[in-house]
Hints:
mainly alpha; about 70% helix; about 0% strand
Amino acid sequence: xxxxxxxxxxxxxxxxxxxxxxxxxxxxxxxxxxxxxxxxxxxxxxxxxxxxxxxxxxxxxxxxxxxxxxxxxxxxxxxxxxxxxxxxxxxxxxxxxxxxxxxxxxxxxxxx
Length: 112
């Protein structure tokens, strides 16, 4: 199992979440957000009295930046956890499956 770049994982999730919320901001700016909201709720067999407020560019920017930051931290944290788990898994695998003729992992083969 390979290690994951912590920075790359953080940037990837940040980009995905920021793009998703940027699309939502565009929908809000064009007046389509309420229709999308109502449609999504209807697909999930739910009803909502929530209404989408008026578009504000500063709020939209803050939304995109905040979700990007949360995405980066979350992606980086998940990569750290993944790397820790793969390190443990690799160590256990090496311990259980020593290379033939070389003895067990970490111990030299006996001289004959």
